[in-house]
Every structure is written in structure tokens, then in C-alpha cells.
Amino acid sequence: MADHIGHRIAARRQFRRMTQRELAAAAHLSLGMIRQIEQGTRAPSPTAQETIAAALGVDPARLDPGYAGTAHRVHAALPSISAAIAGYDVRLDPPTRRREELRRQVTAAVVQRLAAQYGLIAGAAPGLLRDTLALLHYSAGEQREDAARLLAAAARCADAAAYKYGAHDLSARLIDVMRWAAVQADDPVLWTSVAYTSAETYLAAHAYRVGQAALEKALDASPAPATVPSAAARGALSMRTAVVAARAGAADAAYAHLTRAGALADGLPEGVYLGTAFGPSSVRIHEVAVAVSLGQDHIGRALGVAREWKPGTEVPAERQSGFYVEVGRAQLWAGQPDAAFESLKVARRLAPQHVREHPWARQDIEKIRRIKRADAESLSSFAEWIGAV
Q: Is residue 9 within 8 Å of residue 38, measured between CB atoms?
């Protein structure tokens, strides 16, 4: 109901100590529209709901638990994203936005990606891809290298939406664009960062052994960790390689890569480096991911981490959410369905769009419903929301 949404928006706005005028400015909507929505006399469109949610720092589903507009928005944008990169190496028209404006908008998209705001990313991605590609084609020297980095970041944001919503062929093409951009930038650290993202291709295809080999080759070619960016890039790639090796059943290799990531993280504060979260907290989260990926014989390690430690706001919402999805799977395997459901609820609160499209979350909620024959209303509601019934 619009009035319920309006009440939630008003409550969240007041919690953030924002005025209606400030919210309107941050969401790029009129003050009159914000007032009408909060009063319940006007229902926000899916686009307005997502921009308001972004301005308030929450997922749209936090404002409306029944919100299901993201999938439609992402799928509607996929053809335009595909068209924007169809001839990425062909120079056409110049960009329609200035470099600094593009930089601000790409930075905003990166923040949205880390918060799992896929609907907003998908809406902006075609234009960002077209303009960052054009900027690269119309730049030279250091400005060309800068444009290549902006293009790689924009393509990665678009890839996040494509991959999450099952467009794996488009995801692979966007990763090709990122590789091409890294060549144009002549930046080995950026290339290492792109290798991190390329793991998606192997994960989507369940090609774990070849994925492990390819990522290990990329690690061998990565620059020495002599600077903060190079150390973070190599550490993040080591984390990702550990997970892929775990999926391949190579436990010794997985834990060895995780140990190397931990050594690199020891000298760095948790943060976002070249668009990827890395640091001690991220390594702990990947310790859980590796244990769960290796299977039920390793869940004691995952549960041990979860008993002693929880990620905080130093970690982006999507990664926090992933931690609770994986802990929930370990708890379910350990015969703790109630605890697993609680973990999935925490994951949903942190990043609903991420959880809704997570195959493990859907599989696990189906299993919990089979185990919990009483069919509690909250469990049924969650299962319906995630598409498990």
C-alpha cells in the first residue's frame, strides 16, 4: 500500500535526520512528490522508489517488502546494455557528458554495486557504457588511460546486474570489455582486478578446474604487492581463486590461496580498492565461503568463524549479505534449520536484491520449509518472496 510505503519512507528519512526537501534533492524528485508519497496520496513508481531508497541508503525492499520491480527493470535494460558494447572497439560519436560528470556517475554506480542496487545500475548502465567508451575513443595519452579505467568500472557495474540476473553470456562479453579497457590503460593492477571479476565466467559454467588454473595463471602474472593497490588487487584475486579452487574440490590449494590473501590483508585496512572490497574482514568472509564451497565435511570451520565474529559496516552490504547466506547453508547442513532461517533473514535485511537472486538462498529456504512442516507464516512469506513457492 502507498501509505505504508510513505510511512516507511518518512520514518527512514527522519532516522537519517533529513528534511523532505533534502530527500527530494538527493532523489532528484520534486518536493511535492515526496510530500504526496509520504502522505500516502501518491504511490511511487518503481524508478522513484529505487531513487528514494538510494538516497536513504537502503534497498527498495526495505521500504516495500513486496517490491519485485528490480528484476523487470534489469531484464528490460539488458538489450540496451548489450547494444552499448556491441562495437566497443569502434569509434563513433563523442561522449555526451564531460569527463568529471562521468567520473561522478561511475563512482555512484560503484557504490550502488557494492550495495547490491541492481535496478539503479541497470537503468544507468547503457548510457554510462556508451559515454565511457566514447570518452576512451576520443582521448589520448594519460587521459586515454583514465578513460579506460572509467570504462572498466562502468562495465563491471553493468556486469554485476547481468550476472546476478542470469545473463551470463552478456556478463562474459562485459568482462571482455573490461579486459580490453585494461589493455588500453596499460595497467597491470587493473588487469589483476579484471581477473578477479572473470571468475564469474567459470563459476557460472561450473568450470571450476579450468577456472582455478586460469586464476592461478593470472596470479602468477600479477604485479608484486609493492603498493597498496597492487597488494589489494593480488589479495582479492587470491580470495577469489581460493573459492574457485574449493568448488573444484582442491582443499589444500584453496586454503593456501586463502592464507596468502590473509598475509596481504594483514597490512591493509578493510576498504574498497579499485572497486573491490579487501582487507581482514573480507578474508574472514571468504574463509566461510571456502569452507562451505568444499562441502559438509568443512562446515565446522565456517560455523567456528560465525560463532566468534560477524562482519560490520566496514564491509559493503552485498558481501555482508553473502556471509550470512553461506553461514545459513552451513547451519542447515549442521541440522540447525531455525538458525539457518535467522541467517537468511539477516542477509535479506542487508541486501534484499542480492538474496532474492541467490540460488543457494532459494535452495536452502525450500529445504527449511520441508523440514519445518509447521509452515510458519514468516517462513512461508520469505519463501514466497524469494520465489521458492
A: yes
